[in-house]
Specification:
DNA-binding, globular, 2 strands, 130 residues, single chain, mainly alpha
DNA sequence: CTGATGACGAGCG
DNA sequence: CCGCTCGCCATCA
């Protein structure tokens, strides 16, 4: 079954849990070439034209600068999920960044694993909001 | 089929 | 810290 490139991008984005955010580059890296950073943005822009299909948490995808791309509306949606932004409109990817999909899921979809070994949960953003 | 368009990333000054 | 340039995929009219 040859799914469209955009579909694969959506599938990866659907793995992002609530309260976490992923960057365009991160999604592109998981999908793999020829998907570049731009393509992910294009795919999300195309979402506006897709009136049907499974939901895609597009608001959880932000740029590498830790800033939202679509405007204050997106930031508000994320804040409602527990993501914190500073006065500059930036969020700490160290705390709210998505570690990546689960190994099992990644393997089942032929996605490159985020890291060879599971990273130790040193911090739990949602429980360590201070 | 051709042309226009769209929500980024990294590098450099 | 900010702004500019280049790279380049799929979808729509």
């Amino acid at each position: 079954m040859e799914e469209g490139l955009y579909e694969r991008i959506y599938e990866v984005i659907r793995q992002i849990p609530r309260g976490r955010v992923a960057t365009y580059g991160q999604i592109a890296a998981l999908v793999g070439p020829p998907c570049g950073g731009r393509t992910v943005g294009y795919a999300l822009a195309a979402l506006g034209r897709r009136l049907d299909g499974p939901p895609v948490p597009w608001q959880r995808v932000i740029n590498a600068q830790g800033r939202v791309s679509t405007g204050p509306d997106q930031q508000r949606l994320l804040e409602a999920e527990g993501v914190v932004f500073d006065e500059s409109g930036r969020t700490d990817l160290k705390r709210f960044g998505w570690p990546g999909p689960e190994s099992a899921w990644a393997a089942a979809h032929g996605i490159g694993a985020p890291s060879p070994a599971e990273p130790s949960e040193a911090e739990s953003p949602q429980l360590r909001l201070f």
